[in-house]
Hints:
- The chain is mainly α and 157 residues long.
- It has five helices and no strands.
- α3 (54-66) runs antiparallel to α5 (76-150) and α4 (68-74) crosses α5 (76-150).
- The longest helix has 75 residues, at 76-150.
- The model has no long low-confidence stretch (mean pLDDT 82).
Amino acid sequence: MSRIYEYVRHPRMAELRLGRPVKTADLRQINHPNFFVRLNARFGLKVTLVVGTMWCAYVFTVIALFALPSAIKQGTYFIVVWLSSSFLQLVLLPIIIVGQNIQATAADKRAEDTYKDAEAVLKEAEEIQKHLLAQDEAMTDIIIRLEKLTGGTPAAS
């Protein structure tokens, strides 16, 4: 008697076994074959790591505050110009980078957790396939025994 069901493994399973979830660090092109792409990636990463700290935000705040007395002496327009061009741009840039770094770390953690969850679901599905195969074999065995008892034909209802 033929099997009731033939399990065919999905091709993505082999990829999952070989890989791991993509993380932010994987996309930084530090191992790119082009020298200039690698140089730009490394330089940009170093600058981002330095500028993207709260310490840099504090330093930029102090630098921006040095220009505040001059802006106050020149009037309201220059206070607005100082606030928008000096203070906000200098101080918010590193703070935004810090926030983005935190978000990237959280996204990496979520990707890792999702990957582990998918792996667990796939393992459970494999166990279900094994269970179903065992049930198919047991049912096939029962059908063969019934056919022997009834003389080769299954009993009609």
